[in-house]
Amino acid sequence: MKDGDRWRTWVDLDKEEKRRIISTIIQMLLSKGFGYQTAIRLLGETYLLCKEEEGTELHDAKEFATLLNSTARYGKSEVGLQYVLGIEESGFKEALNLLRGHRHNLVEGLQYAREEKLQKLAHLQYFHAGMVSVIPLSEL
C-alpha cells in the first residue's frame, strides 16, 4: 500500500490494519493445512522499543535491525554504529536513505524473481537470477 509516493511499512499501519493482515495470513495458512499453532509461530513476535517514537523505524525492533543491517550491507556500518552509540545523531538521516535503497533493491529483486520462470524440482524451487542491478550508493 502506498501513502502518496511512499510505500507504507508495517510500522506505518494502525492496529486495525495489522489485525486484518494477521487474520488474513492465519486464515490462508489454515486453508493450506497448517495447524493453528504453526500458523501463529510463522507470524513471529513483535518487540517494541518503548522509549522510541511510535511509527518510526526505531520503535519496532525488527525494523530497527533492518535499518542497521542496511547500513552494513552497503558498506556504511559506521553510520549505524555511531547512531546506536549516540555519537552521531545526524547519521540517522543517512541510515534512513540506506534503508530506503535497501528496500527498493529488495522489491526489485522480488519483482525480478516473479518475472523469471520458476524451476520446480521435487524438493527445490529456483530461478536463474542472471545479472540483477542494484542502486549504487552514490544514487541514494
Q: Which descriptors apply to this entry?
A:
two-stranded antiparallel ribbon, mainly alpha, 51% helix, 5 helices
Summary of the model, kept short:
By secondary structure, this protein is mainly alpha-helical. The chain contains five helices and four strands; from the N terminus they run E-E-H-H-H-H-H-E-E.
Can you describe what's shown?
It is a single chain. The protein is mainly α and 140 residues long. It has five helices and four strands. The chain has helices at residues 15-31, 36-43, 61-73, 77-84, 91-115; strands at residues 2-3, 6-7, 119-120, 125-126. The strands form two sheets. It has a two-stranded antiparallel sheet. A two-stranded antiparallel ribbon has the order 3-4. A hairpin with a 2-residue loop joins strand 1 (2-3) and strand 2 (6-7). Helix 1 (15-31) crosses helix 2 (36-43), helix 3 packs across helix 4 and helix 3 packs across helix 5. It is globular. The model has no long low-confidence stretch (mean pLDDT 84).
